[in-house]
Design a protein that fits this description.
Keywords: Methyltransferase, Transferase. This is Class I SAM-dependent methyltransferase. One of its GO terms (molecular function) is methyltransferase activity. The chain is α/β, with parallel strands linked by helices. The chain has a single domain, classed as Vaccinia Virus protein VP39 (Rossmann fold), CATH 3.40.50.150. Helix content is about 40%, strand content about 20%. It is built from 10 helices and 9 strands. α7 crosses α9. The two termini are about 30 Å apart.
């Protein structure tokens, strides 16, 4: 059964179906210069059969297609996101399903890799999601997930620190539902979930994604990055905007930009053969 949190996310992404991929592709991994999709896919490799949990508009699957994976599938709650995914030439033969990751419409041992980029950390009933991933993974298959790691630095941290009390002050009936499982935030947490199901110890990589830009551009990025921003009324949002510009004024460089970055953790493991 679809949960309140899933309904909220589905409605959000149906309204703004490409917001996540545009945001991710705008940030560049420090020391690398590529988007986190590319770094993530390179770490996973080129498994022949890939399933993306929470595939959105198909940006990550398209990255795997360009990398050489031949058989691609994805599942997402948002019909709007999937409509965009189906327009991607790289995904012309991909199987893209509208549904819940807790109830995968795929057969046993159907994939060599199950992946998730910035979505697993938002999913309800993590244990059920992972049990389904185990079912559809072939022996020796890879499970990999990119998740948020920390509240960011520079102007991104300023936004987070200013907005958090405002999010908490939203009336409960309008507040963004609490989502996800905190075990997805660390390697130890992943091992706690995955180890008993036969996965090897998790390999954990951390990357930093740079969003340095002029203040107004960073403001726009942050409002997309933090889902609860959409729950603020116009007056509160205007107040947050003013406070953000005030607090970041001293961060502006001679080039007219403010530093802003967020951390991403990438967990990778393999199902015992």
């Amino acid at each position: 059964m679809t949960t309140p949190g899933e309904l909220w996310l589905r409605e959000y992404h149906d309204r703004k179906p490409d917001s996540q991929s545009v945001l991710i592709e705008a940030g560049k991994v420090v020391g690398d210069g590529r988007a986190s999709y590319d770094v993530f896919a390179e770490l996973v490799g080129t498994p022949p059969r890939v399933l993306d949990l929470g595939c959105g508009d198909g940006a990550l699957l398209a990255t795997f297609a360009r990398q050489g994976s031949a058989h691609l599938a994805g599942i997402d709650l948002s019909a709007g996101e999937l409509a965009l995914a189906r327009r991607r030439p790289e995904l012309a033969s991909a199987r893209l399903e509208h549904g819940r990751t807790q109830e995968l419409p795929f057969g046993d041992n159907a994939f060599d890799a199950v992946v998730s980029h910035m979505t697993l950390m938002l999913m309800d009933d993590l244990d059920r999601v992972v049990a389904e991933a185990v079912r559809v993974l072939a022996p020796g298959g890879v499970f990999a997930a990119a998740v948020g790691a920390g509240g960011g630095s520079g102007a991104a941290k300023v936004f987070f620190d200013l907005s958090k009390p405002m999010f908490l002050a939203v009336p409960e009936e309008h507040r963004a539902p609490v989502r996800g499982d905190r075990r997805t935030r660390t390697a130890e947490g992943f091992d706690e979930v995955l180890g008993p199901l036969g996965f090897e110890p998790v390999a954990w990589d951390e990357i930093v994604v740079d969003y340095t830009a002029p203040p107004e551009q960073v403001w726009a990025t942050c409002t997309e990055m933090f889902y609860p921003t959409s729950t603020l009324d116009d007056t509160t949002l205007a107040g947050l905007h003013t406070a953000f510009l005030d607090e970041t004024r001293d961060l502006i460089t001679d080039d007219g930009v403010v530093p802003a970055a967020v951390g991403i953790g990438i967990a990778r493991t393999r199902l015992a053969g």
